[in-house]
């Protein structure tokens, strides 16, 4: 699976990389990296495009992203604040090829199996967030102790798989950049009418060719992706505005027909 290969900046002999992102957006290119990533969203809202799925994110969310899985954090525009995320990057053999296989760490073994599809804790675990903050601020020895505790907690909590699309997609860097143009346009305009003619023209293709192209590289049709994005937006509106009527939910989500939305 090759999209935009991103090299995580690190110091010589650094095994556990801590990266703090602050700004109007996170790293906004459809990309992949060799390292496993644990991402803690301290502040910010947007969509995580993860392989063939799209997941909303907001304050307090935690995502575990496996090695070389294409993904993109697409931040929603915010006028009053910046996004803030702490990420840990590491590989299974960063601490030695057999370190995580010792009997004393048996509980943590399944963590690496779960990363193959990526996962998200189903509840916002305050203790996990505190450990992420501690790792980003502490000394080397305490950092690794907290890291082992973090993996243990992630193994113990109930989680949701981020994608079931685990067989390899062959996506070149060029295709990854083309798909990002489509993702950016759709996420910015999903609340409006979107036509195949318009979206296919963004990457200089005919509608029929674009439909085949999109499905071959994402494992779903373009309109399935668009509907999923709109439904997820509607879910967020329902969650944050329980008193809204169906019309107040369906219209901003681009479902002009209430019956179709239902």
Describe the protein's architecture and organization.
This protein is an alpha+beta fold. It has two domains: 158 residues, Jelly Rolls (Sandwich); 72 residues, Arc Repressor Mutant, subunit A (Orthogonal Bundle). The protein contains nine helices and eleven strands. The strands form four sheets. The chain has a four-stranded antiparallel beta sheet, with helices on one face. A three-stranded antiparallel beta sheet has the order 6-5-8, with helices on one face. Strands 1-3 form a two-stranded parallel sheet. Helix 2 packs antiparallel against helix 3. The chain is globular and about 55 Å long.
Outline of the structure:
With 262 residues, this protein is an alpha+beta fold. It has helices at residues 109-114, 126-137, 140-156, 173-189, 196-201, 207-218, 222-240, 246-250, 258-261; strands spanning 4-5, 17-23, 31-32, 36-43, 46-50, 53-57, 62-65, 71-75, 83-90, 119-121, 159-161.
Order of helices and strands: EEEEEEEEEHEHHEHHHHHH
The largest sheet, given as strand count, sense and whether it forms a barrel, is: 4 strands, antiparallel
Please report the distance between the alpha carbons of the first and last residues. Answer: 37 Å
Rg measurement, Å:
19 Å
Could you tell me the mean pLDDT? 82
Q: What is the highest CATH level, the class of the largest domain? A: Mainly Beta
Tell me the domain tally.
2
Q: Which structural class do the helices and strands define?
A: alpha+beta
Shape: globular
DSSP helix count? 9
Low-confidence spans: pLDDT under 50, at least 5 residues?
none
Spatial ordering of strands, largest sheet? 2-9-4-7
CATH architecture classification name of the largest domain = Sandwich
CATH topology of the largest domain: Jelly Rolls
Total strands: the figure is 11
**Beta-strand level of the residues, as a percent range?**
15-25%
Query: Approximately how much helix is present in the residues?
Result: 25-40%
Assembly type of the chains comes to single chain
